[in-house]
Design goal:
Structural class: mainly alpha
Number of helices: 5
Shape: elongated
Distance between the termini: 23 Å
Radius of gyration: 16 Å
Largest sheet: none
Strand content: under 5%
C-alpha cells in the first residue's frame, strides 16, 4: 500500500486488517465488502476511497500479513545472536503460521 499521508496509510491499514479478519473467517468469496466495512467501523463506500475493488483489498490484506510475519522474523534475528538458534526460532515461527 502506498498512500500519500500517514493518516491515509493508517486508515488503509485498518481496513486491510479488518479485511484480513473477514477473509480468514469466511474466505475470499464469502467475505463481503459490507462485512469488512462493518468490521472496520466504516461505510462500504469508504473502502472504495482506498481500494479499487475486493481483489485489491485482498492483496493489501495479504501484504499486511506478510509485513507482520517479516517483522516477527526481524525481531527474532535482532534478539538471537546464535545462527542455529535463529534458524530454530524462525522455523518454529513458520510452523506456528
Amino acid at each position: 500500500m502506498n498512500f500519500t499521508t500517514p493518516k491515509r496509510a493508517d486508515k488503509a491499514r485498518e481496513i486491510a486488517l479488518a479485511a484480513l479478519d473477514q477473509f480468514t473467517q469466511k474466505g475470499f468469496v464469502s467475505a463481503s465488502l459490507e462485512h469488512i466495512a462493518a468490521a472496520a467501523g466504516i461505510g462500504k463506500s469508504t473502502i472504495y476511497e482506498y481500494f479499487k475493488n475486493k481483489e485489491e483489498l485482498f492483496i493489501a490484506a495479504v501484504e499486511e500479513t506478510m509485513e507482520m510475519w517479516f517483522n516477527d522474523i526481524r525481531k527474532i534475528c535482532d534478539r538471537t545472536a546464535d545462527p542455529i538458534e535463529r534458524i530454530d526460532r524462525i522455523a518454529n515461527e513458520v510452523m506456528d503460521c
